[in-house]
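Annex B. Sample input.
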Amino acid sequence: MADDARHVLGRLDAPVTVVEHGDLECPYCRAAAPLLRALVERSDGRVRLVWKHFPLFEVHPHALTAALAAEAAGTHGLFWEMHDLLFAHQDHLADADLRDYAVTLGLDPAQVAGEGAQVFADVVEADYTEGLAHDVRGTPTLFIDGVRYRGPAELDALVAATTAG
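Annex B, continued. Sample output.
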């Protein structure tokens, strides 16, 4: 999968890679976030999480602009901080809100929302296109070492899936 090192939680050289195709306005992605973080944190460096944008813009009107904001933050090493802020305030993702979150993180609000964030559109589109190529239709969709995970969104099941083999 293209550019798997762009947004990684955990060790870059972890032997197991979980790729999440997610939407920052999706309540199911928000619910999965602490489970996936716990999976990485409890793995003793064996599991890394890679985020790929899959904004469901037809049902989530702010998903695309939230993805652009997260990409902008990522250029300053603050992707996961913005990711967490956006999930924490999922009902407040208008451009004015995104600018406020930028200030909270010490970023230039003009780069995080509005015209300034459009420079990241190609990156978000590439993630989205990659998701389509892997038959992603909803979020979150997880792949463990390239294989679609079809189990429950439960920590024990995810741990079992990342230790099998």
